[in-house]
């Protein structure tokens, strides 16, 4: 499973989704889905734009997390 750290990052920076949406022109609904970890797919250009805006690497935004009940193939 992929975990998105957008909520933690914005919380640490005291930034709001509305501010990020306004500054980046990323759709607010897309940001909400990332923030709430309900997104099932995200365009690469959105990830690129978000990482550039936040000045972070992709690995700081997303993390692969294994469930205890999942086995590696």
TrEMBL record:
<dbReference type="GO" id="GO:0003677">
    <property type="term" value="F:DNA binding"/>
</dbReference>
<feature type="domain" description="HTH cro/C1-type">
    <location>
        <begin position="5"/>
        <end position="65"/>
    </location>
</feature>
<dbReference type="InterPro" id="IPR001387">
    <property type="entry name" value="Cro/C1-type_HTH"/>
</dbReference>
<dbReference type="Pfam" id="PF13443">
    <property type="entry name" value="HTH_26"/>
</dbReference>
<dbReference type="InterPro" id="IPR010982">
    <property type="entry name" value="Lambda_DNA-bd_dom_sf"/>
</dbReference>
<protein>
    <submittedName>
        <fullName>Putative transcriptional regulator</fullName>
    </submittedName>
</protein>
